[in-house]
Automatic annotation (TrEMBL):
Source species: Kocuria tytonis
One Gene Ontology MF term: 5-carboxymethyl-2-hydroxymuconic-semialdehyde dehydrogenase activity
Active site residues per record: E263
GO BP annotations, alphabetical order: 4-hydroxyphenylacetate catabolic process
NCBIfam families per UniProt: HpaE
Protein name, per record: 5-carboxymethyl-2-hydroxymuconate semialdehyde dehydrogenase
Length: 511
């Protein structure tokens, strides 16, 4: 059988370079790495591989733009206008963006298009939020007025993963830029293509040179990601990626006491009670784990099903999983495309083999028919999965789901909480009291009741336990990217302390 080929997008650049201080540049040592297309696994473009020296140049450019340029000093309204322009441009280039994202990452084109729209919306949202923001002020009757000055912090280091790369970059770029910071973005090495579109978009929208800087390359010690985390002039790191990487970054940032936001891995439960709308629950849980090729942090990859409906659920779920359309990423009818990279494909396939030893396979379990090359994994369903199984405990990050039965609400909760992760939870029941009770006690940063993971951009996003540190989304992002300086104004009746009247003065001051 001939090897599969996907349609190459138009206007591919010749190579992917860094963008520093408003200029496209190669790595200082000239090093590059190959970027693979997930359908052929052949290199289709070279990207510059950044190291410490490249990060130093990018941070210096960002610092200069922050200290000397107009960006942090602009009125929120002025930055907001530019952010809206960015959103307009992203929207107008949705097709091109989606084609590039899909070719680079293996995501189905329709889903990549949806993510491009979401990226535009992220910019629009933060453009609106910074102008609508209510400033804090406190009146202490007769004594003081206190107000809070929100100030951009400086150079923010943004480190992003390869799943939905463009959208996840927008998630950090939107609030970091809206609040007046300058940034250095280090996108994931598996998928650098769509990030190379940001400079053109930002230039066209009027973002001054040096405000946005891009350094491509790897994350490990001595490479771009690690060097960004260890740079003393970068007080903030916003990271999305694996929990293990988050731990390493946490350690490396500690000597500098950096502000950290960590959006990490997940193994989220979808709990289906006997009184649920079964049709809706099956549709949503099939979509929840197989969309975005299963490479979704909030995937409901453990489904817990109450015993009375277990057999019916399993039968219908497996049938539906078998109907999910696997195809070329560029084909608009494709529902599951190719996994991002052969390394990740091997990892997911190794879990499929582990699952065959640990549980009962009812759908998938290998390559889909007709896809003998490329990183293709058929939507795979394991049932009767025990809680100590590795496929129950560990994040697979592919189109693989573990289904486990339970009897009581207490057992469901115990199973739901029985992993190190705590990102999302999905609850399917028609009993509101049960749903709320479960939501209160489940260890998850985000809970959806009778819903897939639609999220209003105002709500907090983040996980507990090994799934993250801090929250982003809405005002939480504004908080993360700003210093909040309190200014206390004496209205005339605050008596300055004099020794001899220490008790009164001490009662009103902090340590
Ligand atoms: P990863 O941790 O391997 O890499 C993420 C980024 O970190 C990449 O840019 C990488 O180059 C960089 N990096 C690696 N080592 C580094 C180091 N020592 N210092 C600095 N940077 C370093 O993650 P991945 O495989 O790209 O992405 C998949 C993971 O991301 C999954 O675990 C998924 O759940 C998680 N994720 C979480 C969310 C969320 O919001 N919670 C969203 C998307 C993805």
């Amino acid at each position: 059988m001939a090897a599969l080929q996907d349609t190459k997008p138009e206007n591919l650049p010749e190579s992917i370079r860094h963008y520093i201080g408003g200029e496209w540049v190669d790595s200082i040592d000239g090093d590059t790495f190959d970027v693979l297309n997930p359908v052929t696994n052949e290199p289709y473009i070279k990207a510059a591989s950044g190291k410490k020296a490249d990060i130093e140049a990018a941070v210096a450019a960002a610092k200069k733009a922050f200290e000397e340029g107009p960006w942090p000093k602009m009125l929120p309204r002025e930055r907001s206008r530019i952010l809206h322009k960015i959103a307009d441009i992203v929207e107008s280039r949705g097709d091109q963006l989606a084609a590039m994202e899909s070719y680079d990452s293996g995501l189905p084109i329709t889903q990549a298009l949806g993510q491009a729209r979401r990226a535009a919306e992220n910019f629009r949202f933060f453009a609106d939020l910074v102008v609508a923001q209510i400033d804090d002020a406190y009146k202490v009757p007769g004594r003081q007025v206190n107000y809070v000055n929100r100030k951009p912090i400086g150079v923010a280091g943004l480190i992003t993963p390869w799943n939905t790369p463009f959208m996840l970059e927008s998630w950090k770029l939107g609030p970091a830029l809206a609040t007046g910071n300058c940034v250095v973005l280090k996108p994931a090495e598996f998928t650098p293509l769509s990030a190379s579109l940001w400079p053109g978009i930002f230039e066209e929208a009027g973002v001054p040179a040096g405000v946005f800087n891009l350094v491509n390359g790897f994350g490990e010690e001595g490479y771009a990601g690690d060097s960004l985390v260890k740079h003393p002039d970068v007080p903030l790191i916003s990271f999305t990626g694996e929990s293990r990487t988050g731990q390493i970054i946490f350690g490396n940032a500690a000597p500098y006491l950096k502000g950290l936001s960590m959006e990490l891995g997940g193994k989220s439960p979808a709990v289906v009670f006997e009184d649920a709308d079964l049709e809706a629950a099956i549709n949503a849980t099939v979509f929840g784990v197989f969309s975005l090729n299963g490479e979704r942090c909030t995937a409901g990859s453990r489904i817990l099903v109450q015993r009375g409906i277990y057999d019916e659920f399993v039968e219908r779920y497996a049938a539906q999983a078998k109907r999910v359309k696997v195809g070329l990423p560029s084909d608009p009818s494709t529902e599951v495309g190719a996994l991002v990279h052969p390394e990740h494909y091997e990892k997911v396939m190794s879990y499929v083999e582990i699952g065959k030893q640990e549980a009962r396979l009812v759908a998938g379990g290998g390559r889909p028919e007709g896809f003998e090359t490329g990183n293709y994994v058929a939507p795979t369903v394991f049932v009767d999965v025990k809680p100590d199984a590795r496929i129950f405990q560990e994040e697979i990050f592919g189109p693989v789901v573990a289904i486990t039965p339970f009897d009581t609400d207490e057992e469901a909760l115990e199973l739901a909480n029985n992993t190190k992760y705590g990102l999302a939870a999905y609850i399917w029941t028609s009993d509101l009291k049960r749903a709320h009770n479960f939501a209160q006690n489940v260890e998850a940063g985000m809970v959806w009741l009778n819903s897939n993971n639609v999220r209003d951009l105002r709500t907090p996003f983040g996980g507990v336990k090994a799934s993250g540190l801090g929250h982003e989304g809405g005002y939480r992002s504004i908080d993360f990217y700003t210093d909040q300086q309190a200014v206390h104004i004496n209205l005339g009746e605050v008596h300055n302390p004099v020794f001899g009247k220490q008790e009164d003065a001490a009662a009103k001051t902090d340590g």
